[in-house]
Amino acid sequence: MNSKATGKGMARSPDGGWSIIIVIATSVCLFLTVGMTRCVGVLYSSWKSEFETSAAMTGALASIVLACAHFISPIGAIVCRGLGCRVTMILGGTLTATSLLISSWAQNIYQMYVLLAVAGFGIGLGFVAGLVVVAIYFKKYYKAANGVASSGIGIGLVAFPPLLQLLLDSYGWRGTLVIMAGITCNICVGGALFRPLHSSKNNNEQSERSGNEAIAMQQQNQTENEDEVTICQPHVQRRHRCACALLSPVAKSLGLHLLRNWSFTFFCWINILATMPYICYLVFIFPRASAVGISDQASSLVVSVLGITSIFGRLISGVLINWKFSSVKVFAAALLFCSGATLLTQLEIVWSFVASSCLMGFFTGVTQATTSVVVRQCVGNDNIGTGIGMCFFFNGIADLVGPIMTGPCPRCLSTCRLILTNILALDVNTNAK
């Protein structure tokens, strides 16, 4: 294999050897990370009874974890760029495990809010590091590798709920959190396997220096233009130049400059609209099934099937994209099938809900695994970490807004999902053409 570095950006990814270890380690780390998020759902009743809080206050724990995980993503991209994916993943695992351990001694719901927020920060760091390191190590087989790595999320959705329930029955919620803290420490072990590519690091430093020089030239040109137009206002100019000098590097580090890329901005907007109904589907599918007379056991089966089929969707996404299909078209088609899956719930029989869950799990697995591929296509490999961070940040907004918007009208969920996903699919398909 040609080992010379490319002239621009990051060095050529090895696509072999240690890259296989990277995929396995990333999949395991994402598997363990998702396991922590499942704690909130399984331990919901125990926390509600222990702290004697309302359903809304206890349910806010789930929103806090997911929102913090998404909102920290731009910072995670900065940490990855400065310290590397290995340190970022270890830091994320340490924060998550430590917060779980300390939360086992929590005495009220407000302490849980703070501790699970810290856990959410750790989850966000781990997610960004895992997705970025796969992009660094793979070029030719990146799409397939990304699907395999992200399959750990689907496996975690299926495996952890019964494990957590078993631990809860045996040790109580406090003992469960202690054990989960120990299990989550293995994220640090997986992160230790993320070997840095030194040639890539050097090229990144060159790219960063080039970017800084471009910013300095832009600021200099801007200063010269201001001096020509507003000579009579030196104090205003000085303050303006100082503000630009301070804010420009911060905005670049957070990835705000990527929003000037209209395709990336449009994709972030699509992710917001797609994530809101998906979160609502997860929240309301169980009560919706119960409301039409389906037993709780059958309703639980509906939720489990969604996680199982999500694994296959993530694995097959790489095959579909490598098989001469555009990643954008695969993403758009998956959204269209999601709308049809939601329509099946209108039949109000148990098998229609199972079929809906199968399709929804499979095709949402495809969309979620394809997201980082589309981001890489929009912003390039050099900006993959920053792009993923910004995309996840907007997903955090959707996680907060979605359940709030549809909470008063859960029976309208299917109609809302159908309308939104059809509009999204048509929009993205038009963009692809």
Description:
It is a multi-pass membrane protein. Pfam families: MFS_1. This is Monocarboxylate transporter 12-like isoform X1. The chain crosses the membrane at residues 20-44, 56-80, 87-106, 112-138, 145-164, 176-194, 262-286, 298-323, 330-354. The radius of gyration is 23 Å and the shape is globular. The two termini are 35 Å apart. It has helices at residues 18-42, 44-51, 55-71, 73-83, 85-103, 109-137, 142-184, 186-192, 198-229, 234-254, 262-291, 296-322, 327-343, 350-379, 384-406, 413-432. It has 16 helices and no strands. With 433 residues, it is mainly alpha-helical.
Features:
433 residues; single chain; MFS; disordered N terminus; mainly alpha; 16 helices; transmembrane helix; disordered C terminus; monocarboxylic acid transmembrane transporter activity
Outline the fold blueprint.
Elements: H1 18-42, H2 44-51, H3 55-71, H4 73-83, H5 85-103, H6 109-137, H7 142-184, H8 186-192, H9 198-229, H10 234-254, H11 262-291, H12 296-322, H13 327-343, H14 350-379, H15 384-406, H16 413-432
Helix pairs in contact: 1-6, 1-7, 1-8, 3-6, 3-15, 4-5, 4-6, 4-15, 5-6, 5-7, 5-8, 6-7, 6-15, 7-12, 7-14, 9-10, 11-12, 11-14, 11-15, 11-16, 12-14, 13-14, 13-16, 14-15
Main location: membrane
GO molecular function, one term: monocarboxylic acid transmembrane transporter activity
Membrane topology: Multi-pass membrane protein
